[in-house]
Design a protein that fits this description.
Length: 368
């Protein structure tokens, strides 16, 4: 990557960090008794969005500069039509008030493929989300069909030829030569270049399509890794869609109850705060559930240490949820000071836990 492009990327990162920090310190100016109501919640949501965008930018820059695409999951057989339709529905819901809509021209018959479903959906989401951002108004049309050589083809027709051209250029960009001509689009270009790396790692391609009598757009192709095809890339053997969760809990009964509520996730246990810190440093978790009253270092101390380590090493901020039976006011105040992402009161209620997991999955879907 050229020095100019690297400088532009870090300028963009600094600006994202500045916005997130300013919003955070602005919230700190409000007295506790005024921190309530719809206006406060709106401001808090906007601040969280800024922080999440900053962390996504850091992760994308690390992945792009490291040269290795971050692909997790295993190969499975699934219906691409269903997968793509779910992605389109989610993005339309997220942009319900905007002037852009995605129309999916689905087929009645299933279109099956053996691929890394999670990684394929991440590519879909990044590209279609960028169509939203780049297009001022109109309709993005999406279609899927079988292609030659045991492959499937996904057509994406943005409202303008210019948008399609920029997407293809970014997806196929040579990072050693890339240049950014418009500072306002650095974040979008970064996201799509990461999608391009992942697309190539999946064995896929992206091409600009312009034929007489047909809409102009881009075509993505994905191979299907059947039993007779070459082995797919060596992805992390984590069950597709499962979350990697660390539960820091010294009480066997409490841990057993929490694990029982998470039968479909990959759950690991730390028995005290120090062990939780070591495990977070060794592996990236989708979430950490942290008990407060543990021998040695308590949960608040462990959270503070993890946040300090993340800052010093430029690691992305792991969602950490405090589990405690303490007074709700005291718990929320101490948890916020320590740097937690959320808190749940013991005993944990299934609706509260599942609501958090749903929000975590949605956030992860929008990050990819």
């Amino acid at each position: 990557m050229t020095n100019d492009a690297i400088v532009t990327l870090f300028d963009h990162l600094c600006n994202e960090a500045r916005n997130a920090v300013h919003a955070t310190f602005g919230l700190m100016e409000f007295p506790a008794e005024k921190a309530s109501g719809p206006a406060w919640q709106t401001c808090l949501d906007a601040t969280r969005t800024n922080a999440d965008r900053l962390l996504r930018t850091i992760d994308d820059m690390r992945e792009l500069l490291a040269g290795e695409p971050a692909i997790e999951g295993t190969t499975e057989e699934f219906d691409v039509s269903v997968s793509l339709g779910e992605t389109v529905e989610l993005l339309n819901l997220a942009g319900a008030e905007g002037p852009i809509r995605i129309v999916f021209d689905s087929r009645p018959a299933p279109i099956m493929i053996s691929q890394n479903r999670s990684a394929v959906e991440q590519v879909f989401t990044r590209i279609l989300h960028t169509c939203f951002r780049l297009s001022r108004r109109g309709t993005v049309r999406v279609s899927v069909a079988p292609s030659s050589g045991d492959r499937i083809s996904v057509g994406i027709m943005p409202p303008s030829t210019d948008v399609a051209g920029r997407l293809v250029d970014w997806l196929n960009a040579n990072t050693d030569l890339v240049k950014f001509e418009n500072d306002d689009e650095v974040g979008l270009g970064l996201s799509i270049m990461v999608a391009g790396r992942r697309l190539q790692a999946l064995g896929g391609t992206a091409e600009f399509k312009s034929e007489p009598g047909a809409p102009t757009g881009l075509e993505l192709t994905f191979p299907s890794y059947s039993q007779h095809a070459p082995d797919p890339p060596n992805w992390d053997h984590t069950p597709a869609r499962a979350l990697n969760i660390l539960v820091a809990e010294d009480c066997d009964e409490s841990y057993a109850l929490t694990a029982l509520l998470l039968p479909n996730e990959n759950v690991e246990r730390a028995r005290n705060g120090l062990e939780a810190i070591d495990m977070v440093k060794q592996r990236r978790y989708d979430a950490v559930f942290m008990d407060i009253h543990m021998p040695g270092m308590n949960g608040y101390g462990a959270i503070s240490n993890i946040r300090e380590w993340e800052t010093q090493t430029c690691n992305a901020r792991t969602p950490i949820v405090v589990l405690s039976s303490d007074d709700l006011t005291k718990q929320s105040r101490n948890a916020a000071q320590a740097g937690c992402s959320a808190f749940l009161r013991k005993p944990v209620r299934k609706p509260d836990l599942f609501d958090f997991l749903d929000r975590l999955r949605s956030a992860r879907m929008m990050q990819v």
